[in-house]
Amino acid sequence: MARADGDAGARRLSGKRAPARRAKAPARIRGVRWWAVAAIAATVLIGLPLAHAFIGELGAVLLGTFIGGFALGRATAR
User: Fold this and answer.
1) Rounded alpha-carbon distances, angstroms, from residue 75 to 33, 56, 72
2) What CA–CA distance (Å, rounded) separates 37 from 15?
Protein backbone atom coordinates (compact mmCIF):
# COMPACT_ATOMS: atom_id res chain seq x y z
CA MET A 1 0.00 0.00 0.00
CA ALA A 2 1.24 3.45 -0.84
CA ARG A 3 1.49 6.01 1.88
CA ALA A 4 -0.38 9.29 1.67
CA ASP A 5 2.76 11.21 0.68
CA GLY A 6 3.21 9.04 -2.44
CA ASP A 7 6.29 7.12 -1.31
CA ALA A 8 7.75 5.48 -4.42
CA GLY A 9 9.29 2.70 -2.35
CA ALA A 10 5.99 1.60 -0.82
CA ARG A 11 4.95 -2.03 -0.97
CA ARG A 12 2.62 -3.15 -3.72
CA LEU A 13 -0.31 -5.45 -3.21
CA SER A 14 1.87 -8.38 -4.29
CA GLY A 15 4.22 -7.67 -1.39
CA LYS A 16 7.16 -6.63 -3.57
CA ARG A 17 8.73 -3.25 -3.25
CA ALA A 18 8.17 -0.87 -6.13
CA PRO A 19 11.37 0.41 -7.71
CA ALA A 20 12.35 3.80 -6.34
CA ARG A 21 11.88 6.64 -8.79
CA ARG A 22 14.99 8.48 -9.77
CA ALA A 23 14.94 12.00 -8.37
CA LYS A 24 15.14 14.82 -10.85
CA ALA A 25 18.54 16.37 -11.10
CA PRO A 26 18.54 19.90 -9.72
CA ALA A 27 18.08 22.41 -12.50
CA ARG A 28 21.17 24.41 -13.33
CA ILE A 29 20.82 28.03 -12.46
CA ARG A 30 21.21 29.34 -15.95
CA GLY A 31 24.01 28.07 -18.05
CA VAL A 32 26.22 30.41 -19.97
CA ARG A 33 24.94 30.87 -23.47
CA TRP A 34 28.04 31.62 -25.46
CA TRP A 35 26.15 33.01 -28.43
CA ALA A 36 24.71 35.66 -26.12
CA VAL A 37 28.17 36.53 -24.83
CA ALA A 38 29.42 36.80 -28.42
CA ALA A 39 26.46 39.03 -29.36
CA ILE A 40 27.15 41.38 -26.44
CA ALA A 41 30.86 41.55 -27.31
CA ALA A 42 30.08 42.26 -30.97
CA THR A 43 27.60 44.95 -30.00
CA VAL A 44 30.09 46.70 -27.76
CA LEU A 45 33.10 46.34 -30.05
CA ILE A 46 31.40 46.90 -33.42
CA GLY A 47 27.92 48.30 -32.90
CA LEU A 48 28.66 51.17 -30.53
CA PRO A 49 31.53 52.61 -32.62
CA LEU A 50 29.30 52.44 -35.71
CA ALA A 51 26.47 54.12 -33.82
CA HIS A 52 28.92 56.79 -32.66
CA ALA A 53 30.00 57.41 -36.24
CA PHE A 54 26.44 57.66 -37.56
CA ILE A 55 24.46 59.34 -34.78
CA GLY A 56 27.07 60.93 -32.52
CA GLU A 57 28.24 60.30 -29.00
CA LEU A 58 25.00 61.07 -27.18
CA GLY A 59 22.97 58.92 -29.55
CA ALA A 60 25.36 55.99 -29.17
CA VAL A 61 25.25 56.24 -25.38
CA LEU A 62 21.45 56.42 -25.36
CA LEU A 63 21.14 53.54 -27.81
CA GLY A 64 23.59 51.41 -25.82
CA THR A 65 21.74 52.18 -22.59
CA PHE A 66 18.39 51.28 -24.13
CA ILE A 67 19.63 48.02 -25.63
CA GLY A 68 21.56 47.08 -22.48
CA GLY A 69 18.53 47.75 -20.27
CA PHE A 70 16.29 45.73 -22.55
CA ALA A 71 18.75 42.81 -22.55
CA LEU A 72 19.12 42.95 -18.75
CA GLY A 73 15.34 43.00 -18.32
CA ARG A 74 14.89 40.01 -20.61
CA ALA A 75 17.67 38.08 -18.90
CA THR A 76 16.22 38.60 -15.41
CA ALA A 77 12.53 38.21 -16.28
CA ARG A 78 10.66 35.27 -14.81
Assistant:
1) 11, 28, 5
2) 55
